[in-house]
Amino acid sequence: MRRLTKKKALTLVKELDAFPKVPESYVESTASGGTVSLIAFTLMAVLAFLEFFVYRDTWMKYEYEVDKDFSSKLRINVDITVAMRCQYIGADVLDLAETMVASDGLKYEPVNFDLSPQQRLWHMTLLHIQERLKVEHSLQDVIFKAAIKAVPPESPTSLSACRIHGHLYVNKVAGNFHVTVGKSIPHPRGHAHLAALVSHDTYNFSHRIDHLSFGEAIPGIISPLDGTEKISVDPNHMFQYFITIVPTKLKTYKVSAETHQYSVTEQDRAINHAAGSHGVSGIFMKYDISSLMVKVTEQHMPLWQFLIRLCGIIGGIFSTTGTNSLSKTLVISTPSHPAQ
Q1: What is the CB neighbour count within 10 angstroms for residue 169?
Q2: Highest mean pLDDT: which of 137-151, 174-188, 319-333?
Q3: Using N-to-C axis directions, what is the helix angle for 117-135 and 139-146, rounded to 10°?
Q4: What do you get for the CA distance between the two ends of the chain, in Å?
Q5: Cα–Cα distance, 48 to 311 (Å, whole number)
Q6: Taking the model in full, what pTM does it have?
Q7: What is the per-residue DSSP string for 196-208?
């Protein structure tokens, strides 16, 4: 009784077979079927190989959220060379609350404003990258993943210019970082610079920004003002940079950090009080902080997705080409009738 029930169950399962098999005695191999099979297997191998390269590749995902951190300090990283002697200029920050930030973290180093051939090559390369970044935005993803960190060549020491470099910690509010004539001194209404002690003949605010960034200095980010060079024809000249800072969380397979990116617009004009162009000679970087944060994450295709795509490629080609039916030709033999 049990054996009979088992036989019925086996018969029922056989009837549900959606892939019935043809006995080998009824099929024969053909040249056309073999050719199609060879093409199908070759196509499977090529597409599987290309799919493996897609699996190895990564991409950057951008997300946006409100920046809830308003109590921390903002770090400003500066490396700027001004074509004036160090004793004639001063750099500091005045924020929106009229709070003057001490510039103890900045160093004043006498340098030569003219670049050496190695420095000029590095500078031109940086400018070329900046131009390509404006056109090809996907290049930034490559720089993120590569974590490129460029260091300019050292400059020979001289007394013709002044390199101001270092970092400052400021309140996370809008402010104004500036370099102008005279050293800064505290003032009840903010601060002032001792410009009266400097002759107008020494004014020359031609400058080169080797680096300006906000937040933690990490590889993989080339700031928009890096490599900027401005030459002033008029001694009384004002250079203004209007900067919008965007907090950024960067997480790649090489770097994981919180930093800031920024966009910038700029203008410059000669100071001529007789012509109605008023102001103070110097370099002014007015910055504001965006309320939105950008999260940049490097992502990778999961293994299960790669396997599903691979099965789809192999199964799709196998079904489309009909390898089972084309590689062999079905042969049906008919019984011969006896001669009358």
Answers
A1: 13
A2: 174-188
A3: 120
A4: 51
A5: 9
A6: 0.69
A7: GGS-GGG----EE
